[in-house]
């Protein structure tokens, strides 16, 4: 039976019955359920919030932060970060200031150096994974554990500046925080406590990194970010002590100062919250996207062959289109919740206009919006040359991804290095077999161990 017919047949008073059906159907076949909603009930009012499924309405929710705030997960995020952060707040204070600061620390000029850094780290990881597989007499390796996760963590270390922090620490701690804040919508106390404890560990690790950096001076060196940011450039005195600190994002933050009178001091605690917040916004996203993009491409052999040819081109614009289109079919953030804080009519002036009261939770379904046939041409066709306007993989509006420039380099390049490597491909017959191992994140994905770069 179609979802809505079955849902409507359950009496309104039986909220648990309706919610149970909604959860079961979403789990069993989310895309089919969302398609039905988009076509028949695009603003769907349920006991667990309002599901918003069309592009225009998702954009409205995400672009109106004085009505729709991040209050659903904001408090949990700040508890885990042990301090204020932009993705936990709206308005003139923390969000506006921290975003301005972040835009200077994560500038568009980073795209080329971060892409080169990712290529180096990814090639090295592929060499290692293939070599270890051969040494152990295996013909496959685990793409998530031996490639996507460590590559993302090593880029975080070298670009963001988590100097000397083990890859495993960055990956597992950030996963616990991510899960507690963004996945744990029921606020299960055990998952929440685990995330808060992981956030504290990250905070303390970063406090140590910052203290060591301060001890040797905070001038720019020759690190991955290459002095490209607003805070980049060599100090006037050119002292040797300044050479000791890599010019990564943390190095920039340690050197930067805000104009006097802005009211928010850039002290080491605030830098700590920013850096850990960046890791939470990045690590799981990058590792998962590298896996799901490859899975979506490998599921379409003709597109995969075209993507392989595009990967060989030095101008990566065409290739990148394949990766972002692949991610449209499997985004890291399929839906993001917002808290309605004042009376508002959503989609005013349309047949789906819906009055919303303060306190209503609204689920902005990014994954659904990207398949909205009223604005996206042939939404179910794989088209790598689509306009980026309809690609919401990096979010939209007031809280869209402030790390979008590095993300646009890291994610496609991590996939590209694989497609440039003959023989490293998802296992035939199992190209869609991401193994989540009972967690919300892909943990294993088997790929064939092809040739090393030198063989
Ligand atoms: C690697 C792939 C990435 C993906 C798929 C991704 C995705 C997203 C999405 C969907 C949002 C919006 C969340 C929402 O509206 O609830 C977001 C926000 C954010 N992202 Fe990313 N992101 C990526 C990389 C990064 C990187 C590299 C950084 C920083 C180094 C970063 C930092 C952030 C921050 C701080 C926000 C919140 C911005 C705000 O509150 O104004 N992300 N990201």
Automatic annotation (TrEMBL):
Composition-biased stretches (Gly residues): 218-232
Identify the stretch(es) annotated as Disordered. Answer: 217-244
- Which InterPro entries does the record match to this protein? Cyt_P450_sf (IPR036396)
Q: What is this protein called?
A: Cytochrome
- Molecular function terms from GO: heme binding; iron ion binding; monooxygenase activity; oxidoreductase activity, acting on paired donors, with incorporation or reduction of molecular oxygen
Please report which protein family the annotation says this sequence is part of. Belongs to the cytochrome P450 family.
Superkingdom classification of source: Bacteria
